[in-house]
Write a structure and sequence with these properties.
This protein is α/β, with parallel strands linked by helices. It is 38% helix and 18% strand. It has helices at 16-31, 61-65, 75-82, 101-105, 107-111, 123-126, 129-138, 161-170, 184-193, 203-212, 221-224, 227-239, 266-273, 277-289, 351-369; strands spanning 7-12, 35-41, 46-48, 92-96, 116-118, 149-150, 175-181, 292-301, 306-315, 327-334, 342-347. A 6-stranded mixed sheet has the order 3-2-1-4-5-6. Strands 9-8-7-10-11 form a 5-stranded antiparallel sheet. Strand 1 (7-12), helix 1 and strand 2 (35-41) form a beta-alpha-beta unit.
Amino acid sequence: MHSPKPAYLAVIGTGGVGSAFLSQLSLLQQAHPQIHVILISRSTRSLTALSFSEPLSLSTWSTALGPSAQPAFTPPEILAYLENSNTTRGKCILIDNTSNQTLASSYPSFLSRGISIITPNKKAFSGSLDLWREIESSSFPADPHGGLIYHESSVGAGLPIISTLKDLVATGDRVHRIEGVFSGTLSFLFNNFAPLNGRGGKWSEEVRKAKELGYTEPDPRDDLNGLDVARKVVILARLAGVEVQDTDAFPVESLIPEALESCQSGDEFLSRLGEFDEEMEEMRRQAEADGKVVRYVGSIDVERGQIRVGLERLDKSHPVAALSGSDNIVNFYTQRYGERPLIVQGAGAGAEVTAMGVTSDLIKVLQRLQ
């Protein structure tokens, strides 16, 4: 039996997801000793291996990175470093655990040189359609010499949403419609504000509670504007064959009162949000009167090429209505599955589950590179 070919990894980003990934990678390395981490970089500094045959230690990287005097690598510097040896072509993997637009825009340069990419970074796949097309054309199999690209965690953290959709399309199924709850934050908010049974609290109180529990961004408006959901919906729409230009190409309903858009901070926003509780309460009352609940939903009508992100009033028997906690759910209505959709549901946020999606993608790439 031949020995596995070495795989040289550049890991960019060591925040919550990046650190969780490196922890998982240290375990994976025991089963895949061909993994050689040769670069770890964060926003201000980086670590490089002494050589490609003397990789970085995954047990000491954190203490070594802190005092490192080596500045962070720019995308061209990362590319040049990975191309340092001609023997590495086809064996290098870029792990991008950031949300950096500059690095995302550089993906075609890496892919066209045979460097594979694994990332939860949504910006590469939900930004301009031109970048999406360039990524597709410079990666394998469109380019026989291009790198592989996997981004399961760009939608739904570790949930198998993207891989499920790709399998449906690749096996010849016809996707009619996709709908779901794509934000753990907004799922938590509406499951508590408008539960199936009982009565939730005031809207402003639920938002404040979500922030205290760590479900929202430091400024909750970054969740309430709906753009994170819109980016995920763009990714799925494109994979289903809808050539949507970007998130400005369809309506995205913001839950930020217009009068509070100019608040100088998240704390100021929360302090004033209670002024608008009655508007949300009226919406809840109207839905309850009709035997429905309100949820924040992203939907794609694939056949008509129509996309919408915003509030929906749903029957209590609807799969989306029955969510609990901060779960995500995606329903795939297809030729094969008809009106009983294929459903993917579970935790759609969190560093550990997002990192799991990245690690899972890495295993797939390692298998394909052998």
